[in-house]
Structures are given as C-alpha cells and as structure tokens.
Amino acid sequence: MQYDTREKIAPLGVLSTEFEEHMKAHPFPPLAPPSAELRSVMEAQRIATQQPDTSTEYSVKITMRDGFSSEAHVHKPSAEGKHPLLVLLFGGGFMFGDCDQLSPYARLATKLSGVTVINLSYRRAPEYKFPTAPNDVWDGIQWITKNTETLQVDLAAGFVVGGVSAGGNLAAVTTQKAVDEGLSPPVTGLWLGVPWTLEPEVVPEKYKDVFFSREQCAGAPGLNQQAMDMFNIAYEPDLKSRDFSPFNAQNPHHGMPPTYIQVSGADPLRDDGLIYERALREAGVETKLMVYPNIPHLFPDFFQLKAFQDFHFDILSSWASLFKKSVAAEDIRHALANSPFASSS
C-alpha cells in the first residue's frame, strides 16, 4: 500500500487496544534530560558490565577530526576470513544511547547473515551540539574504508549502513553524503528504523499535506512532541544543513543504494519515514517500506506484543536481504525467541 494521502495515513496513528491495555499495566516513564552526573553514573555502569574483548567482539578507538578518541564496537562471525560489513548507529534523540545499545542486534546479524557489524559512537547533546554527531559518524565511516584489512571486512561484498531513530537520521545523511562525495568503496544498502529525517521547516512543498504526524501523535507514549522539543533544544541543529536532513542535499535521493525503512504508525516520526521512502522511490531508488499500524516509537521493552515481534523480525530479515543473504524465517524466529528481547518480556 502506498501511503500518499492523509486519508490513508491518519488511521495508522490510532493506538491499538492491545497496546493501550499493555500501557495500563506497564506505563512508560516520561523522558527527561540526562544530567552530567547521571551520564557519568550510566557510563561507569556500562564500563563495569562490559565483557572483556574476545576474537569476535572487541572495541576499537577511532580518532575524530578534532583529536577526540571515539569508541566503536566490532562484532564478527565465528568463521574465518573477510566478511561484508554492517555499520549501526544507536538512537536516543541525539542525547541518549551509546554504542552498546544495538549489540544484541549485532550478535544476531553475525550469526544469521554472517556479516561483521561495527557499532559506531557519536558525541551527544547537550554537551556536543550539531554538527558534532554527523561529523563523528562521517569520520568513523571514512576510517572504516581505510582500515578494511585490519578489520578483515570485504566492503565490495556488502557495505550496509543503518540506524534507529536519531541514528536513522545520521545513517541517512551519512549515506547521502557518501553518494555525493563518491565514497569508495560505496555504501551498498541503507536500513532505517523509525528514522528522524525532517522538520516542518524543510518538508518539500509537494509533501507538506502528508506531514502531520508531529501533531497527530504529539501525545504518544514515550517519544512525544515534548521529547522532540527537548531534543531539538539540546541538539541545536541547522535545519537547512545537509548534515541534518538528506532532503537538504544539492541533489537529494538520486543514486542512493537500496533502502529499507520501518515506520511505526503512532509515532511523531512516522511521516519522516513515509515521506523519505516516497521521495527515494520517486527518484528511482529501490526501496522497501514496512509499516506497523497503531503502535508508537520503537522500544524493545514491548517485545511481548506481536507488532513489536514483527518489527524485530523485519529488522533481521531486512539486513539479510540487503546483503543478498538467504535466511530462513524459522531461523530468524528461533534466534529472536532465544535473544535478550524475548527473555526481558
């Protein structure tokens, strides 16, 4: 189905009865700005619980353009040899999250698709304003292309960039920049989970009528308009910069690699994903759009709900497809059933 009118899109934003019943029993706490003290405590806890490096999971340090040493986590298949590469970028409104966030997904990808995964870091707001985050990611991507022998990756066999939420924003602008600047080897695929790609000020005129999820889902659980405002105040992006939105590129969308996008229906970021997929498709890019009606922004805590199980299944299936790997559905379901997501539900 093509979501190209308000009449088709609006029903997606009504929360499902199943989700509302779940929220009554498990209310989601409101997001609040993390203090410097809380950040320090969380980082200390993260380091204390970190597993020691192994031959298949280890950390590397990447020097940024300003000399800052950024941490990245590498997850490798057990099989010897060079492997295709998946680069993942964590979410959290440019304020929360770290490169451990997507490690459970990375471990599943190494087993199911036989790819190496690198979880990049980027510095977060409010301590580090825009464009520090996109600069860090671009520096990380360039470092990867220059260190393929050390990493034992074969980018010609597959080089996919992906991210969730704010990480989806960074994945999109980084891949557009890679296309614009002729990055070699080129990015071969893009995966975006509930991405943030727009703000009202930069929505192209032809799509303005179908950009209304900010208003419709302003009071959604978890990520709502209040949280979006908090993130924008902390991040202070230049809304017209190509490092904020792929729509701001000089020649946006054309030449982009195959792109898979997952969108939650009752999410303030819903129309960011719907419009971006449509713009890419209209520019001749191969796309796949997966829409999950009547649920809010993705949170793994809701794994026991079928819609979120479907969302997680499609993440792993999308990665396999972007790498042109054949992975049986039953293998994906088995992996998820034995993952931390299922055990925490």
TrEMBL record:
Q: What's a Gene Ontology MF term here?
A: hydrolase activity
List residues of the Alpha/beta hydrolase fold-3 domain. 87-299
Domain of life, source organism: Eukaryota
Q: Which UniProt keywords apply?
A: Hydrolase
Q: Which PANTHER family match?
A: AB HYDROLASE SUPERFAMILY PROTEIN C4A8.06C (PTHR48081), ALPHA_BETA HYDROLASE FOLD-3 DOMAIN-CONTAINING PROTEIN-RELATED (PTHR48081:SF8)
Name used for this protein in its record: AB hydrolase superfamily protein
